[in-house]
Amino acid sequence: MDHWRRHHGELADIADKAAAGVRLSTADARRLYECNNLTFIGYLADLARNRLNGDNAYFVVNRHLNYTNVCNNRCRFCAFFRPPGAEDAYAMTLPEIWAAVEQYQSAGVRELHIVGGLHHDLPYEYYRDMLAGLRRRFPDIHLKAFTMVEIDHFAGLSGRSVRETLRDLKAAGLDSIPGGGAEIFHHSIRRQLCPHKISGERWLEIARIAHQEGIPSNATMLYGHLETIDHRLDHLQRLRTLQDETGGFLSFVPLAFHAAHTVVDVPYATTGSDDLKTLAIARLFLDNVPHIKAYWIMLGPKIAQIALSFGADDLDGTIMEEKITHSAGARTAQAMTREELVHLIRSAGRVPIERDALYNVVWCPEDHTVR
Ligand code: V47
User: Fold this and answer.
1) Is the CB of 179 under 6 A from ligand 1?
2) What is the mean pLDDT of residues 55-73?
3) What residue owns the CA closest to ligand 1's atom 28?
4) Best of 153, 222, 279 for a ligand 1 pocket test (most atoms within 8 Å of beta carbon)
5) Weakest mean pLDDT among 112-126, 150-164, 313-327
6) What's the Rg (C-alpha) of the chain?
7) Is the pLDDT of residue 143 over 70?
8) 147 Cβ contact list (under 8 Å, min separation 6)
């Protein structure tokens, strides 16, 4: 630490806080963003990661299920949605969903990540019956389903409050909620990027109710488009404040914007430096969120692996088929085998831990005890 102090005297107070596990202020996080010494920021984030997760690096054997690409929200950053009636619009029937999931069973899938567009005429019962049917047929698979944005839509369809809707969906089989739809909470960015989507305040309010109802969730942040560093920090600050209240966020997932086939004009994709800095600052700032995910689908496996030394402790999962980022030009593979994930983690010097959606240990090396 003395070496760092000599070279980064102006950040010594932040280094001291990070080393002691003292909470960083927004101003501290801004100063880290302004610092160009990536390895310094990574080193501090690595201290925080180690304190929270030791050498464990998690992954899950999962699958994504995108039941429809038809959406009324028409978010400008999204290349996945189709307007009703488009030639390549689709909505899976419930039997098609059962058949798709049937195929995953033999692969040892623990988690289904289910999200879709806000379809103009699927009834509320479709969503409830989807969960109930999946639960009945595949009782061992965790159902991580429907973003806060979809939950808001379903409450509108069912004519009930968000709380009652969540209770009903939980009774049908909803286990947890993925982190999507958060984008950037600040209204000035939301107004430009996704003017028809629920507000940041509404997203947070639904997350609060879900957590109060015993339904944990993740949280995401879409970065690398129109936002400034202050918008990112505002986003992180709001998540940290809610997490202090509920403790319901399991993980935070920064999502690097991919611009192809969208109508958001950005000159460049996010850079490796920005991706790693954002993960590291998230690890340092969100001291109350247990896990930081390096989502290899968006980052690419190599940056995701390096992220394990920049604050991340989770690579998400095997996935197999990913539509949202690949519609927007992602060039990563759509699947990683369990063995590939284990190899990436081991060669980063970490201990691979296969988890379920709630971070219970499914498998770990024989000589390792998970603390
Ligand atoms: O909500 C949409 C984002 C999200 C683009 O909870 C885009 O474990 C980049 O939420 N470029 C869906 N991103 C993905 C998501 C997620 C992924 C992995 C794990 C978890 C989790 C959640 O993808 C959307 C939106 O924020 N997105 N379009 C795009 N062009």
Assistant:
1) yes
2) 96
3) 78
4) 222
5) 313-327
6) 20
7) yes
8) 115, 177, 178, 179, 180, 181
Ligand 1: distance of its center to the CA of 258 in Å? Answer: 10
**Of 220, 253, 297, 320, best ligand 1 pocket probe by most atoms within 8 Å of the beta carbon:** 220
Give, for 168, the enclosing helix (H) or strand (E).
Answer: helix 162-172
Q: Would you state the pLDDT for residue 5?
A: 63
Q: In this predicted structure, what is the pLDDT of residue 309?
A: 98
The token pair at 65 is 């299920």
Cα–Cα distance, 182 to 197 (Å, whole number): 10
Q: Does the Cβ of 176 fall within 6 Å of ligand 1?
A: no
In the DSSP assignment, the letter for residue 22 is P
218 lines ligand 1 (CB under 6 A): yes
Tokens 């197999």 belong to 320
What confidence score (pLDDT) does residue 334 get? 78
Tokens at residue 51, please? 């304190």
CA 221 – ligand 1 centroid, Å: 8
183 pocket-lining for ligand 1 (C-beta < 6 Å): yes
Residues of the chain with pLDDT > 70: what percent?
98
Are the beta carbons of 129 and 137 closer than 8 angstroms? no
Q: How far apart are CA 362 and CA 371, in angstroms?
A: 14
pLDDT of res. 318: 87
Extract the tokens encoding 357.
Answer: 């959606």
Amino acid at residue number 198: I
Q: Is the CB of 227 under 6 A from ligand 1?
A: no
CA of 324 relative to ligand 1 center, distance in Å: 7
Give the pLDDT confidence of 251-309 residue by residue, as tens digits: 999 999 999 999 999 999 999 999 999 999 999 999 999 999 999 999 999 999 999 99
Cβ of 258 below 6 Å from ligand 1 = yes
The DSSP bridge pattern shows strands 142-145 and 249-256 to be: unpaired
